[in-house]
Structure formats: C-alpha cells, structure tokens
Prior knowledge:
Helices cover 61% and strands 0% of the residues. It is built from three helices and no strands. The longest helix is centred in the N-terminal third of the chain and has 21 residues, at 2-22. The protein is elongated, with a radius of gyration of 17 Å. The N and C termini lie far apart (36 Å). The mean pLDDT is 88.
Amino acid sequence: MKNSILIFLVSLCVGLVFFIAFGNHAIKGDAIQYDAIAWNMASGHGYSLSAQPPYIPTNWREPGYVFFLYLLYKIFG
C-alpha cells in the first residue's frame, strides 16, 4: 500500500511538471486526429477529419478510442 501511494505521488508530480512546462501544447501526434473525429461525430458531421464542410468520411483512425471520446463529448459536452 505504501509503495502504491509513493508511485501515485511521483507520477502526479511528474505530470504536473510537464503540464506547467508545456501547458496545453502537450497534445501532439495522432491525439489531434482522434479529437477531431470525435468532435465531428458529436456534432453530427460523421466520422470525418475535416474541419469545415464538406465533411469527407475517413478510415484513417480506428474507431475504438474515437467512440470512447465521442461518448465523453456527448455526455459532458
């Protein structure tokens, strides 16, 4: 139990250091694409990476994580 608390506190501190150092600019790589597809689905624009109409469907990313984000966006806005 004591080791679990120590691991949690160390990981929390490391995460806070990265958040303070990089802020919101820490999202890189494919996370932006997953986010865009999920927002388009939640907005009713389908499974698309497009930011503006026409919303062209894509199969570039797997649907598992996108669907999870979609549910979060629909539930919490």
